[in-house]
Amino acid sequence: MTLLLGCIADDFTGATDLANNLVRAGMRVVQTIGVPAQPLAAEVDAVVVALKSRTIAPADAVAQSLEALAWLRAQGARQIYFKYCSTFDSTPAGNIGPVTEALMDALGCDFTIATPAFPDNKRTVFKGYLFAGDVLLNESGMEKHPLTPMTDPNLVRVLQAQTKRRVGLIDHRVVARGAAAILECIAALRAEGVGIAIVDAVSNEDLLRLGPALAGMPLVTAGSGVAIGLPANFGIAPSASAAALPASGGLGAVVSGSCSLATNRQVQAFIAAGRPALAIDPLRIAGGVDVAAEALAWAEPLLKDGPVLVYSTAGSDAVKSVQGQLGVEEAGAMVERTIAAIARGLVERGVRRLVVAGGETSGACVQALGIAQMQIGAQIDPGVPWCHAQAEAAGGAGLHITLKSGNFGGDDFFTKAFTFLE
Ligand SMILES: Nc1ncnc2c1ncn2[C@@H]1O[C@H](COP(=O)(O)OP(=O)(O)O)[C@@H](O)[C@H]1O
Ligand SMILES: O=C(O)[C@@H](O)C(=O)COP(=O)(O)O
Questions:
Q1: Is the CB of residue 142 less than 8 Å from the CB of residue 149?
Q2: Where's the Four-carbon acid sugar kinase N-terminal domain (predicted)?
């Protein structure tokens, strides 16, 4: 068995996003939840190890990433891909730099690239500045993220603050000239002592030009976008069969702990479509009320009539006020635990098509459901595929699940996801 690409993702939605792009480019991919205890059993081209390491202490993120690296190397991975968010999410302490550095040290490599560009989802990098849609990162709503507020759009500066290695830039004029020019630029940057280069990319064509220049680079660090250009380096071409999943059935539900602008719109659209939705209040959880039991009692009689939504999704002022009263981490952890308990309860009550919104929230839910690995299916919206998994909460039965990144998906995502399966 030859594992071509070994991937380490810093959150669970990000992992399915990366797996989705690899599958669309023709790779057979498995996503594992955490580092597997066993060797790889399936014949696949890529494994994405999903960690929940984006917002934990840097030393823990490094330790978990190195453990994932050791497992991937033991499976023979020929190239390592560290996946972070397309909005470069990092806490003020910052995990992207320390994890990149530790992986470089472990792999004995003195150069890698870094680019969150993902044009399919309107994330573009120009002159080292990250745009989300038509605006700079720090004007996109990400400056108000509950856990990873991004207030500086200059990625060279953001990454340099997180690493001792020198950070440089491969700018759009070089990328536009193709792989040979990119390789020349890499050689020049290395000679100047640059260890990590941010790469400009404003289109899929840029990423496809970058791909061949990364062949043989031991470590690539990026959002999911760069993945579209890597399978071809291994002689792999797109194939429809890579995304086939078992038939779906069972009850449907959505749980959402994401507070992004996109998720707020998706919650409103689900309600406007006349579907049942229940908001949960973090302050009542903190006050000792069994909010999960309440939500499950609310949902149970409704499930037979179609998908329901349970959400803590709220606007930035409401989130700030809760965080002011409970503390940022405490509020996040408490809400995640509650939503995870609700997700588990829903699956125990027969839900077999589950939408989870939010990266941290997805991590908590997938762990609570007792899922060890996921098979990746077709893309619902860019970056968000349906997946299939055996879940301990379903008595070991199969479950269709989609992990929606906070910022991804059209406004109708919570209804579209179910019609897409039918
Ligand atoms: N109403 C709320 N008040 C405070 N924190 C919240 C609220 N709702 C959700 N959270 C927390 O905010 C964080 C959202 O992060 P995440 O799930 O990664 O979403 P996203 O993908 O949008 O970043 C989680 O830790 C979640 O528990
Ligand atoms: O790259 C992306 O934007 C996503 O794959 C991702 O990592 C999203 O994380 P959340 O916004 O926390 O869901």
A1: yes
A2: 5-228
Residue by residue, DSSP assigns 15-82 as HHHHHHHHHHTT--EEEEESS-SS---S--SEEEEE---SSS-HHHHHHHHHHHHHHHHHTT-SEEEE
Distance CA 259, CA 288 (A): 23
Q: Which of 239, 271, 297 is the last residue of a domain?
A: 239
Assess contact for 245 and 377: CB atoms under 8 A. yes
Q: Which ligand minimizes its atom distance to the CA of 15?
A: 2
Same domain for 150 and 266, yes or no, is no
Show pLDDT as tens, one digit a residue, over the chain (422 residues).
689 999 999 999 999 999 999 999 999 999 999 999 999 988 899 999 999 999 999 999 999 999 999 999 999 999 999 999 999 999 888 999 999 999 999 999 999 999 999 999 999 999 999 999 999 999 999 998 888 999 999 999 999 999 999 999 999 999 999 999 999 999 999 999 999 999 999 999 999 999 999 999 999 999 999 999 999 999 999 988 888 899 999 999 999 999 999 999 999 999 999 999 999 999 999 999 999 999 999 999 999 999 999 999 999 999 999 999 999 999 999 999 999 999 999 999 999 999 999 999 999 999 999 999 999 999 999 999 999 999 999 999 999 999 999 999 999 999 999 999 88
Q: Does the beta carbon of 282 lie inside 6 Å of ligand 2?
A: no
Report long-range pairs for 303-307 (Cβ below 8 Å, ≥24 apart).
Answer: 303/251, 303/252, 303/253, 303/346, 303/349, 303/350, 303/351, 304/251, 306/252, 306/275, 306/418, 307/251, 307/252, 307/253, 307/254, 307/275, 307/353, 307/355, 307/414, 307/415, 307/418
CA dihedral for 9, 15, 21, 27, sign (positive or negative):
positive
Is 235 in the same domain as 256?
no
Question: What is the whole-number distance in angstroms between the Cα of residue 16 and the centre of ligand 2?
Answer: 9
Residues 198 and 265 in one domain: no
Tell me which residue range forms the domain holding 111: 5-239
Considering every ligand atom shown, identify the ligand nearest to the alpha carbon of residue 327 and give its number.
1
* For ligand 1, atom 27: residue with the closest CA: 332
The residue among 182, 209, 239 that closes a domain is: 239
* Domain containing residue 117: CATH number: 3.40.50.10840
Ligand 2: residue whose CA is nearest its atom 11: 406
Assembly ipTM: 0.97
